[in-house]
Amino acid sequence: MAEWKNLDTLKAYKALMESDHRVDIKKALAGDAGAERVKNYSVPMACGMTYNYAAKQVDEEVLGMLKALAEESDLEGKFKELYNGAMINTGEKRLVLHHLTRGQLGDAVVKDGIDKRVFYTGVQKDIADFAAKVHAGEICNADGEKFTTVVQIGIGGSDLGPRALFIALENWARANGKLLMDAKFISNVDPDDAVSVLKSIDVAHSLFILVSKSGTTLETLTNEAFVKNALVSAGLDPSKHMVAVTSETSPLAKSSDYLAAFFMDDYIGGRYSSTSAVGGAVLSLALGSDVFDAILKGAAEADKLAAQADPMANAAMLDALIGVYERNVLGYESTAVLPYAQALARFPAHLQQADMESNGKSVNRFGEPIDYVTGPVIFGEPGTNGQHSFYQLLHQGKTIVPLQFIAFKENQTGTDVVIQGSTSQKKLEANVAAQIVAFACGKDDENLNKNFDGGRPSSIIVGDMLTPETLGALLSHFENKIMFQGFLWNVNSFDQEGVQLGKVLAKKVLAHETEGALAEYSKLLDI
Amino acid sequence: MAEWKNLDTLKAYKALMESDHRVDIKKALAGDAGAERVKNYSVPMACGMTYNYAAKQVDEEVLGMLKALAEESDLEGKFKELYNGAMINTGEKRLVLHHLTRGQLGDAVVKDGIDKRVFYTGVQKDIADFAAKVHAGEICNADGEKFTTVVQIGIGGSDLGPRALFIALENWARANGKLLMDAKFISNVDPDDAVSVLKSIDVAHSLFILVSKSGTTLETLTNEAFVKNALVSAGLDPSKHMVAVTSETSPLAKSSDYLAAFFMDDYIGGRYSSTSAVGGAVLSLALGSDVFDAILKGAAEADKLAAQADPMANAAMLDALIGVYERNVLGYESTAVLPYAQALARFPAHLQQADMESNGKSVNRFGEPIDYVTGPVIFGEPGTNGQHSFYQLLHQGKTIVPLQFIAFKENQTGTDVVIQGSTSQKKLEANVAAQIVAFACGKDDENLNKNFDGGRPSSIIVGDMLTPETLGALLSHFENKIMFQGFLWNVNSFDQEGVQLGKVLAKKVLAHETEGALAEYSKLLDI
Question: One of B503, B507, B513, B523 is an active-site residue; which one?
Fold first, then answer.
């Protein structure tokens, strides 16, 4: 059994905090030694990708201390407990099983008499069969015509991850004949969100997926009503256009309002549900179940690497350790995720959720207050766009923001143009290489307005191309990084009590059961 | 003449830093006094909007000190110098004239013999005439058919602002018969960005706007080549499908490659250019020049309010002062912008640019180092989506992040649905009211995992509906807030030297003129 202890009780952490050894990355990256460092400071990832941390403020001494921290914290042992079915989600007293949606890392996990791997693969099979029938036109609209659009109705984890993954693969799919249906997403309770999506589609040829584990998420049920109204207005039978992704115990599960129901359970949190039915249904319909399987394959390969004890062979673990070093020892408060791929436009928003909802905690996994900082603020936009925007602060601001670059050697569509002797793809890559060095090494200038101090740390993940496999591996990398950081901080990364209070108060406002400040805010808003 | 002094030389700032008076917003918002506070802590904004700061950590004492700071820093005088044509952009030795695109706040500004207000309104008139001809079909494609889509090719300021504004008004325009053309945007040098947009449109009926002040922006010229290839492949003459927005001295200005050229000048920075031809061309084509005029009208009204000396009547100034108090006195490092309107989905990204590129500086306006922190990290997503995502950290994380809510009393499309006794719009508003109180007041729970400390500050801007006018006013509010903060920090908010180094290094990479670490990064990326 792994021992769950607060970070500040660990010897290795105390050693890190007491050490005044600091790495000057400007110096570390200079000259031939700097070139050697870039060559050597790499860890292989799944699907041929690489995690390079040469521009991070670490060296053999710091890495040694981080390795000691990984051992003392028993990150490997904790992950093993997790994938073998221990009750890691202490707040809600639940297992944490999203890894099982993509592979069997350890023992069979049997819960309530059910082998959970069998359950998840069974649901995937049901979805694949359903999707195949939709694609073949066997499941079709009342006029016998094929469905051409799939619309996901969900919020938070039922929206951001699947949406980010679809956007990530849309161009790839079009270029490879894999875009079988268009996909759209409705999430916000703002009525204009649903109205806008409904205006943009042909409802007669659209299939809607209602995603709610409990079957009671207010935003989702409200948006379902919008969709049903639109279907009825168009003279259509909603039950012939809707599918549910929900838990077996939810009111939606056995309802005749849906063509089919695909099941999720309590052991996969919303933000970790992209590889469950939550992502599986919409992605299998839009891109085919073979593409969804390829995402799972990439994720499974990355999960396997994450199960290793040695952080120097485990990119997710090393990334997690360096992140904790930056947050707790160096004191950096936020981290920017900067993918040099337009297809990853919404990937930072998904990671923002995955990370901040998991580790934005002030109590440990036993509900006791902790005296050290936890999860950072996460934000980001694709490069090169960000270079013409907020990078100014990243380069010359008073605040140091650690950076996580992501880049690929080839673009997805295979189409490109040569201008000034290079393709756009090479320009894109040249920019990310240039940024790493600019941030780390800076440039001296007598005019301080044009001076760059450097010393701004970054890492980069490099892959050949953003494909279903590499996307799955990327997703898994970050999920596992966040998990390891939760282990280090000794927090429960799998509940989200912080979202509850707002819900309770919003109900009071709607019931006009308010007084004091809340009543005045309601007046201000004309509620 | 205003005196430009570093923040830490001001008496009022020293008084703020020395004071240990702190406002407990949980207490301040309690009971009847809390209700009174919500009523009173409001400043009227343009177009019927309101800035409410009752949940900020201020009271009469703090506000008095902030007012003294505004006076000592002479924020009113500095803004007056700016709009009267002083050389406020000290780095590039330029005037700062974006306010003139929407009104004449002070004296005529004559530069190089040209009255700049006359110049900007002249360009707006040219754009309006051109747009009217396009809408009437007088300017059309080779087959005599109307253009139905307008595509903006630009990056950074030529992309984020106009894109955010178009998205903000798309639903409103559709509901009001004002969506005259569809609008698309190509920005990233990633070739898949251009490929993807070109796949989604009918090039034969598309008009492209190339936006580059210098006419040399690499991303934009590269994407122009993509577009020209697509047009030529479709058997079309690119010069009959393209318009330029550029400076009069750029190579694009007199080129026969364009149907028309609309001019910008050196006195409007990219991130402040949404109300110039940069936003004007695409928005007038997509929505009509009357809609663009309405945006300008809202912005002009807000600019007038911003010219007042008293921060208690000047929401932009007060917002700026409270932001500096939070950043420099209370030590908060980031700020979240949280619009409760799906239409403002990309508005936070625009503000992220406007703010971080303007005030992410470490030297003052004279190029001297400064010893206090400047611009914060800005991020955000629309509510209620964010509530199911990163709000966990905002509520219960170890880091306090000041919040900027934005909400409206009515939705844009006029379509809604009643579920559980309330419309979606009322649910949306109820959620924002609830969040403010949840963040500020928290909730005690013996189970610390379910405990909310509260004390997390926010403000809210409330408007009747997101229309062209309120959108213009909102844009101006934030532009002026950022400007006042730049004045307080004594930085030049109008240059962006931090974006230069990356460009220089990227050119070296593409020319294979690299050594050391940069050469190794190039190898890693297969460049």
Answer: B503
3-state secondary structure of B309: coil
- Residues A393, B357: C-beta atoms closer than 8 Å: yes
Chain A residue with CA closest to B393: the answer is: A360
Question: For residues A422-432, b (16+ Cβ closer than 10 Å) or e, as one string?
Answer: bbbbbbbbbbb
Q: Which of B35, B160, B521 minimises the CB distance to A520?
A: B35
Does position A270 have pLDDT exceeding 90, yes or no? yes
Q: Which residues of chain B have pLDDT under 50?
A: none
Amino acid at B183: A
Any A CB within 8 A of B114 CB? no
pLDDT at B121: 98
- Partners of B435 on chain A (C-beta within 8 Å) are 502, 505-506
Which pLDDT value is given to residue A1? 82
Q: Are B205 and B150 in contact (CB under 8 A)?
A: no
Please tell me the pTM assigned to this model. Answer: 0.98
Question: pLDDT value at position A253?
Answer: 87
Cα–Cα distance for residue pair A442/A458, rounded to 1 Å: 13
Nearest to A501 among B171, B221, B395 (CB): B395
- The CA distances from residue B433 to A522, B405, B467, in Å, are 6, 10, 22
User: From CA A126, how far away is CA A263, in angstroms rounded?
Assistant: 10
Q: What is the pLDDT of residues A395-440, one digit of tens each?
A: 999 999 999 999 999 999 999 999 999 999 999 999 999 999 999 9
Contacts of residue B36, defined as CB under 8 A and 6 or more positions apart, other chains included, come to: none
The 10s digit of each residue's pLDDT in A347-371 is: 999 999 999 999 999 999 999 999 9
Report the distance separating Cα A349 and Cα A322, nearest Å: 21
Structure confidence at residue B215 (pLDDT): 87
With beta carbons under 8 A apart, name residues in chain B contacting A422: 510
Cβ within 8 Å, pair A29-B423: no
Instruction: Domain B101-293: state its class.
Output: alpha beta
The Cα–Cα gap between B337 and B379 comes to: 6
The string of pLDDT tens digits covering residues B425-475 is 999 999 999 999 999 999 999 999 999 999 999 999 999 999 999 999 999
A115-294, which class in CATH?
A: alpha beta
How far apart, in Å, are the Cα atoms of A512 and each of A504, B38, B411, B427? 13, 17, 21, 12
| Model pLDDT for residues A456-492, shown as the tens digit of each residue | 999 999 999 999 999 999 999 999 999 999 999 999 9
The DSSP symbol for A408 reads E
* CB-based contact B443 A501, cutoff 8 Å: yes
Q: How far apart are CA A7 and CA B456, in angstroms?
A: 26
What is the dihedral angle through the alpha carbons of A274, A275, A276, A281, rounded to the nearest 10 degrees? 80
At which residue do the structure tokens 């935003």 appear? A219
User: CA of A196: which chain B residue's CA is closest?
Assistant: B171
Residue A163: which pLDDT band, with cuts at 50, 70 and 90? very high
Cα separation, A392 vs B355, in Å, equals: 10
**Contact call for B527 and A192, based on CB within 8 A:** no
Residues composing chain B:
527
What value of ipTM does the predicted structure carry?
0.97
Q: What average pLDDT score do residues A213-220 get? A: 87
Residue spans per domain, chain A: 115-294, 499-527
